[in-house]
């Protein structure tokens, strides 16, 4: 109470943060929240999958902490961002899918920081309409944003900027930090578009990443036996549902020559649109790398089996996807150097995460949405030397739901009671002895692109129970210890009947605790059944 009164007095008498910054540096750290889009943990070398090298992101783990079981509550872009801002599940904040409107008038953690003397900025992808609220400065991409020479909306004004999106997003972030009012602490949300589809790398990374061959996951040729309808009817298989032009970069003219049909109606338009944004010089570099790849494909195509084609498409996918990760990693490197050069590295919390995980060929898939591990989980690394001991690794079941409370906690501010997440600060300084033993998940965007059925469920350390509903009513249960790749639904296996009952009980508890219900599910169903 004493301390409360004192800070309160300080606020009223000295409305600037000058004192607070000098005297209480540790109490009001700066925050850089880095979130990329669709960055699966498999594509960060600190997670040990051996696919690529991300030395700069890895530094956060080396000098701070890495969470190996961080998850999202709804594995989709805009809903994940809404959860980040509000600290509430999708059915509470209203942004259940990419289509629903986000109500910026509701409270969010940036507004709270701002009200309490922080300077705040949002740079990069947000994927929501309307002027962002809670930020002194915003420079956001429109909708999904573009890779080359992208448009930004800077404090409400649209502007096209020459360059590569990940580099520009980094430039703008550093620029804003450099020009900030140094008497106040700051919080910047530094949101990369990459490595989102259609996976267009920076020109400087094309040669290196297109020359590599990547190891295939052992379930690349998954036939979806052993699971229910949802896995079988999803449209995210690399062989069957990927775009030839937009995704694999086969020029539309070559598609025609080879008789390749568009899977999505905008495939060729996407390719033309993406490459049409390049200058002649940029395009020449692009062509010098991709033309030989396409010439080689043209020669081989008619002799390729379905398996060959799957393998080829997987390699193409990985080359471009991991190529885009490289510039994201460069950006993190630049940020860390910048903080150091400006004496900010000790008192700035740096968080790296993604809006969700992603399939990099596991189950034969790309995209996300499912409550299965690769898309439920998301990378999470955090560095803050003042409080987080270097080299920690945590298996705790933290979620994106926890970001808002955690950031407010570090900022020394009160966490609103209606936020549903929990600060994980105590997990990192050793003060938290008890953490949740299960996470709750919901997904709504169906019918829609990729056709992943509506579902909700619960994951504990060892098990996962999922309910698919709406046009099917199916349950799935996985034993993550025996079957980490989730190949076999054991819901109806005799030996699992006790586990099944326990998991149902836990799920009911979670739904009650987080205030979700069948009524909510119904409320969000499409108005007209298709
Ligand atoms: C686009 C992509 C999808 C992707 C959604 C949502 N198709 O529609 O593959 O699932 O975005 O992604 S594309 O052909 O237009 O690239 S999200 O990350 O924004 O949720
Ligand atoms: Ca995303």
UniProtKB/TrEMBL annotation:
Residue intervals of the N-sulphoglucosamine sulphohydrolase C-terminal domain: 361-511
Keywords linked to the UniProt accession: Hydrolase
Gene3D superfamilies: Alkaline Phosphatase, subunit A
A Pfam family annotated for this UniProt entry: SGSH_C
Record-level Gene Ontology MF annotations: hydrolase activity
Keyword NAD: no
Family: Belongs to the sulfatase family.
Protein name: Sulfatase
